[in-house]
Amino acid sequence: MDKETLCSSIRDLDPGIRFVGLINEKGHLVAGGMAQGKQPLEDAKKDEMLYLELALRVRMRQEFDAELGSVKFAMSYRDKVIVMSFPVGKEIILVSSEKSLDFGKFPFSVLKIIEQYQK
Asked: pLDDT confidence of 32, banded at 50, 70, 90?
């Protein structure tokens, strides 16, 4: 499975998905993007800041892996969207969705796709 296929497989899990992107360790989008028909809530410059902040946050969380185990995903429930991140090697999958998403089940479906990708 290539990076674009990984992103589209996740995007296809639910019609409420707004964005799926693969962010590298330097905070750059390397695959994926907005779901068709969805409009971004921020401008491109803020996207870049979000990606860089995400890459830094994931690296900082890894400082606790030895004691707590590795992070499988992290989620923010915001006023307008749900944002999730999934570390995949040195990269991160960033997902944003409508608030109607079943966030109790969705992340585990993503983890299954990531597991297939890593094989």
From this structure: very high
